[in-house]
Task: structure prediction
Amino acid sequence: MKIMESQAIQQLNAAQEKFLKRMRNPFIFWWAMLVQLPSVIFWGVRLKSISTEKCEITIPYKWRSQNPFRSIYFAALAGAAELSTGALALLALEGKGKHSMLVVDFKSEFYKKADQKITFTCHQAQEVLDTIDNLDAKGGADTLMMISEGKNPKGETVAKFFITWSFKKK
Result:
């Protein structure tokens, strides 16, 4: 498995490697979120891991992320799920010139009450990297539905988010 991971990392350009290093630094991640997505800081969202395979984001069950029904507010869950997909999209776009990205569709399914720390995982890193690499063949624009699955500490699926991103080359 380590051989596959090192092969995937070799495919990244220098800007993407630098992006991964910055994202993995807790202070730089916190600062970037404070400037670009301050609600993520308020809710206590954390980057657990990011790689060429997946991105994991956690959101705690605390008073800042709670709704009156003693579970994590759906918007906080949605923000954490979107971040797990968006971070991979930003990784794919790094060093590839000017692009725009936008959420064009958003669907969710809820299965259990989110009353514990939830970890959102998106396993589509390679798929988004391939999508960005193939934009020229698609006329400079494409869309990709990315799935982020939220699980509680017991490994039970709490929610799934289906986020469709649109990418356009400028």
Remarks:
- The chain has six helices and six strands.
- Residues 2-169 form a domain with the Thiol Ester Dehydrase; Chain A fold (CATH 3.10.129.10).
- Residues 74-93 form the longest helix (20 residues).
- The chain has one domain: 2-169.
